[in-house]
Structure formats: structure tokens, C-alpha cells
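User: Last request for today: this protein with adenosine-5'-diphosphate, please.
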Amino acid sequence: LKSLLNGPSLLAEQAYLAGHWVDGDEGTFEVTNPARGDVIAHVADLSRAQVAKAIAEAETAQKEWASWTGKERAAVLRKWFDLMMENQHDLGVILTAEQGKPLAEAKGEIAYGASFVEFFAEEAKRVYGETIPGHQRDKRITVIKQPIGVAASITPWNFPNAMITRKAAPALAAGCAFVARPAELTPLSATALGVLAERAGIPKGVFSVVTSSNASETGKEFCENPIVRKLTFTGSTQVGRILLRQAADQVMKCSMELGGNAPFIVFDDADLDAAVEGAIMCKFRNNGQTCVCANRIYVQAGVYDAFAAKLKEAVEKLKMGDGMEEGVALGPLINASAVEKVQTHIADAKAKGANVILGDSGAPQGPGYFLPPTIVTGATKDMQFSTDETFGPLAPLFKFENEDDVIAMANDTIFGLASYFYAKDLSRVYKVAEALEYGIVGVNTGIISTEVAPFGGVKQSGLGREGSHHGLDEFLEMKYICMSV
Ligand code: ADP
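Assistant: Here's the final one, the structure of the complex with adenosine-5'-diphosphate:
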């Protein structure tokens, strides 16, 4: 891995605890390259006491940090952003090595992750309050916004950089201190952010990266330690529920970005080529391992066969392999159980009568967690992927007859994160966009992520929003001051 980097300095196996690089009291844990199956790093495994120390130091550092002006915080955050972009290549290589996505995509994630730091650096200057005309002649009412205090995050392995910056940047901009616990599968992208935070001049203790193999212990410390006033989590709905229950004891403010089960609808009047292109970006980005990836593709009867044929033709061209190789569009899945889950969904669909029209070619030989992209036709409601997120390169095509039916099918899930549809008729576009019970609707596009818009789900896909000026509010408390004059 070192030989692929411009310099060795971003590769950090220690944890970044309150401005110090430390070893873990529990030893180390291994990080594996999913394309090759080999161990690429031994990362500090922190004890619960060490996590508590990071939180305690964050409390002290936060008070000073919050006293800085927005402009002063903005300058340091801007520097952090600049350093991320200057080091985009090395950050991308580290990300590909531990996570598997193709290097071009990994570098794209670095730019996406950095964009949150740039955006919230700018927003740091705009934490505006409010004045409200008094309710009595002698009363003056002012509303101010203040940082909530110490915030902690738990993030997944599918976006090891951007899921952290999307939370840390608004927290820091607001004047909070931040303790990040990266996924144990992908800690190196997080410690690299620690290296750059230190270089950018973010004060000691304001941003810590606590690496640990024991997620539940760290999660408990975050929820039970009274210093932590905000928990921000991205991951499965199942773990989100556990954390919400744990956080309830302290009535802790929580943001939850949980699972999705995104519908992708193609109507008769859609531009089919655009829909195929959108479906590929949406379904196969990160090899299907994003919570906004299309999980159920609904195609209207009149264009069903044509869409299936075009999708197959396009997917066949995607090259699969080690993400470090030129021209690779599909990397490995994250681990063996991810492969197994997709295989289970394929077997279940086959047993229930679906046809596999693509999916038996192209997997590289040898180690690594590869699975060829698979398309099935004849998908039905009783198949596992209807209710369960596949999180892999499987595209099931469902046939539908009319608008009302497909809206009902699309909404028939406990999830409500992202949804997509392709259509041209304007009244249909409005009607469907309003009827979809999702936090995000992509119309004639398969890519919806940007730092300037509020990202988040309804129903069991989560609580709160990330990105946009709304993302900042998640780390602020409102205080109303009532003054008699
Ligand atoms: P995914 O399927 O994306 O891995 P998870 O919800 O299992 O989703 O994991 C998301 C993050 O939550 C990971 O960093 C994982 O280590 C962490 N995690 C898993 N279980 C717990 C738990 N009980 N408490 C706190 N964090 C957890």
C-alpha cells in the first residue's frame, strides 16, 4: 500500500485521541483489502476507557472552540478542506485499499467528503438567530443558536471518508467538539482525516478518531457518558434502533441515517437510454453498496423488455476487478458475508420463479470478495429483495401496469430514504414526486447526493438531515431570551 502513495504520511495506524497519536489498550485489529483478502494494516484497538478519555478532553476543548468566532473556525475548516483536496490521490488510494471501490470513485468520494467541509466552513459564519416582536409592551424576544456541546459519531464502511466529514464538518462549524468512531473495516480513511485535521490547525481535542474493534462498547460509552450531548449515526436500521434505545436514558439528541430500500421507477414515457444510464449509476455505484442504491427497479409493461435488454447490454460492459486497476467500474464487495447475502437474494428469487438474465460471468479468479453484476426479470413482491436491502450488485426488475399500482408498491416498505423515477409527462412528474414517501426523490436522475441539499430519510430510514444549512441545525441548540425592558 505504501508504494502506491505519493508519501507515507497519511497512513496512520494509531488513533488520534485529543491531539495525540496513541496505541490501543486492547492491542490492534487487522484491516483487510477486500480485493485481495490480504491484511494491509494493524490499527490501534482502543479500550472503552480510552474512548471516555477522548470524550473528556473534547469537553474541555469544546468550550474554547465555541468561543472562537465563526470566521476563525471557518478559516481552519477551509484549511482542512484544502488539505483533503491536495491529498486527494493518497486519500483515494487508502480508501480503495481498505474499502474496494475503484480508485476514480474513491477520489470522487474524497471530493464529495471534502465538499461538506468547504460548505460548512462557509456556513460557520451564518449561524443566525432571530428577533421576535414581544408579546407584551415591555418584552423583547431574541433567539440565539449555540453549539450543542460534544458530539460523537458512528459511521459505516461504505463511505469511510464522506460519512465522517458530513457529520464532523457541521459539528465543528457549529462550535461542537467531535469524537468519531469509524467502522472497524475502514479505519484508515478516518485516521488520515485526523492527520490532516492536525495539520490544518484544528485545536487538540476538538476532533478525535477513536478506532476500536468493539463497536458496541464504544456505542455504549457514547450513549452512557453524560458529556456526550449528540449522537450521529449512519448504518443499519437494526443498529440505529439499538442506539436510539441506549440514547434514550440520557434523552440524547440523535441523528440517524439508516437503511433504505430505494425504488427506481421507469414509466412508459421515460427516455429509456437516460433511464438505463441512471439505473447503472444508481444501482452499481460502489457495487450496490450504498443506502441510496436502487434496490427495486419497477418498469412499466410497455417498455419492460426493451429496458431489460438495454440494461443488460450496458451492465455487460462494466469491468470488474481490483479497484486499483485502470478501467475497473466494479470492485469487490466488502467481505464474505456481503457476497453471501447477495447470493441468498439471487437464489431466493430463482426459487420463486425469477429469470437471471445476466450474472454468471466476469468474476476475477483468486482471492477477494467478487460477485458478478446480476439482473433478474420477473421479480415479485414475495422475493427477499422486496423488503430487505440487498446491498450488492443485483438489479431485480419488477413489471407494473399503472401509476397508482407502482406508487403503492414503491411505498410498501418500512424504509423511506431515496427514490427515483423516470418520466416526461409534467403532471405525472409532480404527482409521483409528491406521492413517494421518501426523504429524497430523484426525477430523471440516478445521482442525488450533494452537500448543498438536505439528505435524510423518513419512516424507519432515519431522523434528521445532513448537508445544506439544515445539516448545521442538527448540532445547534436554540435558546430563547425573554427580556423585560
Ligand atoms: P453496515 O451493514 O453498514 O455495516 P451496521 O449498522 O452494522 O451497518 O454498522 C454501522 C456501524 O455501526 C459500523 O461502524 C459498526 O461497527 C457499528 N455498530 C455495529 N453494531 C453496533 C452497536 N451495537 N453499537 C454501536 N455501533 C455498532
